[in-house]
Amino acid sequence: MKNRKNILFALLCALMIPSLLFSQTDEEQIRALRTSSNSALKAYDHAKVLSYLTEDALTTTGNGTVLCGKKELEQYILDGGKSDMYWVRNPEEITVNQKRGLAWESGTWNGYDSERGEVSIIKGRYAAMWTKKTGSWKIKSQLFVTIEEN
Q1: How far apart are the first and last CA of the chain?
Q2: 83: pLDDT confidence band, cut at 50, 70 and 90?
Q3: Residues near 147 by Cβ (< 8 Å), separated by ≥ 6?
Q4: 69 vs 56, 108, 135, CA distance in Å?
Q5: Distances (CA, A) of 45 to 26, 51, 78, 86, 123
């Protein structure tokens, strides 16, 4: 019986240690989602890009176009046709309100034309509001402002 308790205790510890080692803070989760979102943007995987948004997400594009909801953003992307442009967001600040399940992200964004190489041709600043109402972080609203164009 004592041997059984020791084995059970060892098994329980073995199961707990990885979860403690690999658990992420809310900020780390959002940074990981942003990295994944950037990869999806670069791969032109529009379905994956949209998966990071709430259904009612509000987006203001770099030129000031306001899009209400994920479906409207999807249509905007489709209406743009085949494009060689992709964007990378670089978070500088992420602040989390755990009690409300909200987060603020701000940083810079760069737009690249894959045919013109690795130098951005347009850039600006952005802010995003994240929410964790469904148990995972999703973008509720995002604002992009174009600052420079080449």
Answers
A1: 74
A2: confident
A3: 123, 124, 125
A4: 4, 23, 20
A5: 25, 10, 12, 10, 21
What pLDDT score was predicted for residue 19?
46
Residue pLDDT, tens place only, 4-62: 666 655 555 555 444 444 579 999 999 999 999 999 999 999 999 999 999 999 999 99
DSSP H or E stretch at residue 40 = helix 26-42
The secondary structure of 93-141 as a DSSP string is EEEEETTTTEEEEEEEEEEEETTT-SS-SEEEEEEEEEE-TTSS-EEEE
Give the model confidence (pLDDT) of 51-71 as tens digits. Answer: 999 999 999 999 999 999 999
User: What is the enclosing helix (H) or strand (E) of 51?
Assistant: helix 46-51
| Distance in angstroms (rounded) separating the CA atoms of residues 37 and 123 | 17
Q: Which two tokens stand for residue 14?
A: 């073995």
> Could you tell me if 80 and 94 are in contact, meaning their C-beta atoms sit under 8 angstroms apart?
no
